[in-house]
């Protein structure tokens, strides 16, 4: 387990060490990351489809996912609500009446679910146990993490400036600690050791990574639980942001977790205005960096 966790962290930090200036290369990296994500999610689904007693496993997974989603929602919203009371963020009137295409965003959010479903159907109906699938998935995961490290380093963001954004830093830390507290509360429900519960609570909405990392370490069933938990977080965030961002910006920005710097950012921008953008990017970037680190550390304790 320790070796696997170190494999999670090493390529991420290795990629973060390289500064690139070639925009064409960064575009290639972007599309390669997208392709790798769907490929590995399909492998995750393949593992789910090949499990013995799949229907019984799915019933257990449903309860685990619902428990994670509900307790994390309560803990995160409560923590972010209190943070807003302590460090209120007042928004100016929104500069734009343009609203993002919510239908397009929800349809885009279905793509990873479809990749997992396609893999599960192939594993259940078509393929027997395939040799070297785990090795292929691990190799693809290492490459993915290296490329993600490159993307984080070369996103045109100054880590120093992000850390100096007090609102963004505070939101990220509150979401992290409230999620870890929820993970501890969920130990009896999930019936796993404390470090595995904390690893499951450390996805912060980054479903394309959490499902892969947890699945590689704990097996496809837990990978599916982590994936669904973080996909549902993103879906809830898309619905929650327009409703609460005016009254409680910290709740709206923070609950989306790592997605605040990419997938939910257009909704944050359109609903809360430009003042929310640097806060959302700072919070999302820090959580994107913390998520694989925390998962790797907790999984290494097993």
TrEMBL record:
<dbReference type="GO" id="GO:0005886">
    <property type="term" value="C:plasma membrane"/>
</dbReference>
<dbReference type="Pfam" id="PF03956">
    <property type="entry name" value="Lys_export"/>
</dbReference>
<dbReference type="GO" id="GO:0015661">
    <property type="term" value="F:L-lysine efflux transmembrane transporter activity"/>
</dbReference>
<feature type="transmembrane region" description="Helical">
    <location>
        <begin position="205"/>
        <end position="228"/>
    </location>
</feature>
<keyword id="KW-1133">Transmembrane helix</keyword>
<feature type="transmembrane region" description="Helical">
    <location>
        <begin position="105"/>
        <end position="127"/>
    </location>
</feature>
<feature type="transmembrane region" description="Helical">
    <location>
        <begin position="277"/>
        <end position="301"/>
    </location>
</feature>
<dbReference type="InterPro" id="IPR005642">
    <property type="entry name" value="LysO"/>
</dbReference>
<feature type="transmembrane region" description="Helical">
    <location>
        <begin position="169"/>
        <end position="190"/>
    </location>
</feature>
<feature type="transmembrane region" description="Helical">
    <location>
        <begin position="28"/>
        <end position="49"/>
    </location>
</feature>
<feature type="transmembrane region" description="Helical">
    <location>
        <begin position="6"/>
        <end position="21"/>
    </location>
</feature>
<keyword id="KW-0812">Transmembrane</keyword>
<keyword id="KW-0472">Membrane</keyword>
<feature type="transmembrane region" description="Helical">
    <location>
        <begin position="139"/>
        <end position="157"/>
    </location>
</feature>
<feature type="transmembrane region" description="Helical">
    <location>
        <begin position="235"/>
        <end position="257"/>
    </location>
</feature>
<feature type="transmembrane region" description="Helical">
    <location>
        <begin position="61"/>
        <end position="84"/>
    </location>
</feature>
<protein>
    <submittedName>
        <fullName>Uncharacterized membrane protein YbjE (DUF340 family)</fullName>
    </submittedName>
</protein>
């Amino acid at each position: 387990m320790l070796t696997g966790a170190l494999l999670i962290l090493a390529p991420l930090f290795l990629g973060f060490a390289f500064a690139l200036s070639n925009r064409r290369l960064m575009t290639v990296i972007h599309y390669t990351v997208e392709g790798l994500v769907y490929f590995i999610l399909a492998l995750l689904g393949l593992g789910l489809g090949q499990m013995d007693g799949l229907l019984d496993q799915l019933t257990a997974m449903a309860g685990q996912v619902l428990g994670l989603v509900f307790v994390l929602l309560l803990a995160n919203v409560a923590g972010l609500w209190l943070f807003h009371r302590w460090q209120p963020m007042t928004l100016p009137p929104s500069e734009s009446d343009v609203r993002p295409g919510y239908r397009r965003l929800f349809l885009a959010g279905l793509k990873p679910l479809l990749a997992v479903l396609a893999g599960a159907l192939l594993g259940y109906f078509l393929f027997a146990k395939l040799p070297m699938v785990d090795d292929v998935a691990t190799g693809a995961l290492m490459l993915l993490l290296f490329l993600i490290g490159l993307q984080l380093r070369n996103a045109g963001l100054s880590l120093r400036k992000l850390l100096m954004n007090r609102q963004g830093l505070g939101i990220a830390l509150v979401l992290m600690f409230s999620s870890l507290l929820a993970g501890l509360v969920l130990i009896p429900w999930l019936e796993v050791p404390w470090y595995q519960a904390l690893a499951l609570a450390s996805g912060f909405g980054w479903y394309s990574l959490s499902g892969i990392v947890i699945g590689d370490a704990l097996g496809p069933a837990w990978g599916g639980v982590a994936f669904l938990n973080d996909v549902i977080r993103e879906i809830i965030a898309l619905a929650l942001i327009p409703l609460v961002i005016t009254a409680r910006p910290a709740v709206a920005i923070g609950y989306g977790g790592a997605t605040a710097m990419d997938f939910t950012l257009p909704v944050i921008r359109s609903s809360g205005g430009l003042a929310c953008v640097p806060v959302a990017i700072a919070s999302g970037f820090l959580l994107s960096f913390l998520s694989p680190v925390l998962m790797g550390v907790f999984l290494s304790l097993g």
